[in-house]
Amino acid sequence: MTGxxxxxxxVGVEGSEFRLAAEMxxxxxxxxxxxxxxxPALERLRSDGADxxxxxxxxxxxxxxxxxxxxxxxxxxxxxxxDAPAPVAVAAIRAGARDxxxxxxxxxLIAAAIETIAHRISGPIEIDALVGHTVADVERxxxxxxxxxxxxxxxxASTILGISVRTMRNKLRTFIEAGIPVSPAA
Length: 186
Description:
By secondary structure, this protein is an alpha/beta fold. The protein has helices spanning 16-27, 38-48, 61-70, 86-95, 107-122, 135-149, 154-161, 165-177, and strands at 7-11, 31-35, 52-56, 77-82, 99-103.
């Protein structure tokens, strides 16, 4: 991981799975804050900010995201939950969450998300090498390199890129159809 220390806000009822996620994040160098509801989470974002927010799907994620946007509180939001049914996870993503992370979390997924956010905040992205390439070419390379870095784990790569797993799979299908080699699934 880079020298940047990210600030992660976990929004959920204090419990073993959220405590485990917090411990994993701390082990990977994140500064972790917790909130037990939408109002305390918004207060924490106003006072301290955050580089990433993980919120339990038991809360109204659409309302939370709308309030964040209304107050111009910017941070990527990942919905998470314990044994949440698929329609709940889909609703969270449709409301604007970047992705859904089932709890208990995988250590590698937490580490990858933290590393990606740390790289984003550690300094400007080198863009000179991208000049002269189409957006489609840059997107393809970004997806393929992220997937390779995640050892073929589509869920991890999707979370890092801020896209849904379905979008990731659709993109990979088009790459394969075009004859572009893709890392095998983990």
